[in-house]
Amino acid sequence: MRKTDKKIERDIIRELTAVCEQAKSICSGFEWLTHSVDYTKFPESLRVTLVFNEVVSETVMLAEFKALIPKVQFALEPIVGSELPAAQIEARREHRLN
Question: Which domain of life is it from (predicted)?
Answer without folding.
Answer: Bacteria
